[in-house]
Amino acid sequence: MRSLKNILITGGAGFIGCNFIRTLLEKTPEFKGKIINLDVLTYAGNPASLKDVEDRFGGKRYFFERGNICTRDITEQVFKKYNIDTVVHFAAESHVDRSILGPEAFVKTNVTGTFTLLETARNCWSKDGAMRQDVLFHHISTDEVYGSLGGTGYFTETTPYDPRSPYSASKASSDHLVMAYNHTYGLPVTLSNCSNNYGPYQFPEKLIPLMILNMIEGKPLPVYGDGRNIRDWVYAEDHNRAVWTILNTGKTGEKYNIGGENEWENIQLLNTLIDIVSKKAGLDQAKVRETITYVKDRPGHDRRYAINCSKLKKELGWKQEVSFDDGLDKTVSWYLANKEWIEGIRSGEYKNWIEKNYGERRI
Ligand code: NAD
Ligand code: TYD
After folding, report:
1. Which of 205-209's residues contact partners 24+ apart within 8 Å by CB, and which partners?
2. Cα(358)–Cα(71) distance, rounded to whole angstroms?
3. How far apart are CA 74 and CA 71, in angstroms?
4. Does residue 143 carry a catalytic annotation?
5. Cross-strand partners of 235
6. pLDDT at residue 320 above 90?
7. Which domains are seen in the chain, by residue range?
8. pTM
9. Which among 44, 163, 267, 316 could bridge 227 via Cys, Cβ 3.0 to 4.6 Å?
10. How many DSSP H helices and E strands does the chain contain?
11. Is the pLDDT of residue 1 over 80?
12. Is residue 355 flagged as an active site residue?
């Protein structure tokens, strides 16, 4: 077991990171340490997602620092100020469509940002010329680094990298840097490649929350191409439990696939969502279905992702706990119950709130 005392979470104000922090502080009694959340608060970072955590643990076991992972002074200051012994690196530009429109930010944050954190860790964790081995740098990555599958087959940890979008290429690049730092400098690292996440607090540009909100607001439901692209869906909490398992018992220098073993064609998934949302929100199912709108396909749209995560299951004993039925049910209920959070995002009002509350706390 590693000590995991002072954990630096990068990108903790984003979708998966905020769920990770909440789970660790509220539902993981064996974790007794502190969490330091370093996040620059891009459009996707929203401290409102952690208000309950800030209220309960702020200044005691939870510390927020606003700052960019690409700025070495900032990352070094955070490492030293909090005596960081573990990094869980979520921070990234994460949306494929945005990477097609503007790839630069993806290279900056995902490649240079990861490089900066690795350099910081290498520097701060070296003692008398030797690399500490009681520390860990865990890198969060995606199954998209493996490219696109046809009708059969699965990504395993040994599948050659074949990224096809600026997003996946930038993540692949960061993965290679992380493994190179282990190989070259002996930096203790672990790496996980996960399939599509869903759950509460996901920014409504990704498929599931976008569709839920469009249904509620009576807007068209845009399906790219023929709607038959396939994704493997995993509930964010299951992903995060897998990460916690790897932090505790994963082998240094190893990578692990995480997935839901839950493949759906986009159009199939949308029809299921329509059933759930219509029922819960009291909408006319047939009318909602009429708003499905096939639109121009995403350039270079990967056809199918499917994960083999048997290494994680067999070696570390993790398994998915939330069924797709339950996960979708909880997710839809959350979006229906959290209008204020959604309104903040939709109106852009949350950005003013961030500037007022966090503008001067930039480290
Ligand atoms: P997200 O876009 O919701 O959140 C990203 C967070 O990183 C935001 O809070 C943002 O403010 C922060 N950030 C961005 N640039 C930063 C910078 N330069 N410095 C500091 N903070 C910065 O992303 P997410 O969906 O929560 O994804 C988290 C991680 O998981 C990413 O590394 C992503 O590649 C990976 N991942 C995501 C999925 C998925 O389905 N969402 C699947 C597999 C892997
Ligand atoms: P997305 O949530 O953007 O995740 P990723 O591209 O990383 O897999 O998209 C999931 C799937 O849904 C993908 O095949 C693209 C498709 N999609 C649509 O058909 N319409 C949409 O409006 C969006 C956002 C995605």
Report:
1. 205/95, 205/97, 205/98, 206/15, 206/95, 207/231, 207/266, 207/269, 208/269, 208/273, 208/328, 208/331, 209/331, 209/335
2. 18
3. 6
4. yes
5. 198
6. yes
7. 6-202+234-262+304-323+349-358 (3.40.50.720)
8. 0.97
9. 267
10. 15, 14
11. no
12. no
Paired tokens of 337: 């119950």
Whether ligand 1 lies within 6 angstroms of the CB of 165 is answered as: no
**Tokens 């505790």 belong to residue:** 248
Q: Which of 144, 232, 238, 302 is catalytic?
A: 144
Q: Where is average pLDDT lowest: 36-50, 73-87, 200-214, 346-360?
A: 346-360
Distance CA 239, CA 241 (A): 6
Residue nearest to atom 25 of ligand 2 (CA): 207
Q: How many CB atoms lie within 10 A of CB 7?
A: 24
Q: Is the pLDDT score of 359 beyond 70? A: no
pLDDT of residue 363: 53
What residue type is assigned to position 304 of the chain? R
* Residue 362: predicted pLDDT: 55
Residue nearest to atom 4 of ligand 2 (CA): 206
